[in-house]
Amino acid sequence: MRAILTYNPKTNRLYVHVLEWPFKTIYLPGLAGKIEYAQLLNDASELKVTAKEGAWLDEAKEGDTGVKIKLPVRKPNVEVPVIELFLK
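Above: the chain's sequence. Below: its structure in token form.
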């Protein structure tokens, strides 16, 4: 998965600009317990976030605690989909 992350410190939100749409899920290492809410920016549809510990995907490193975000199978009809993460 290729993505660019940007952060807005004023709103405490992390934006994941997804350059290659993955199939069903995206993994973000090191964010377990740090996300309050996740949504697609283009239509504000809620995304399910679950914590996942350990190296269950190639992107994860052994012992890493990350999150898995469930995505729609079809890419949103925008050039670069953005996932907005509301941080705690």
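Residues 48 and 70 are 5 Å apart (CA to CA).
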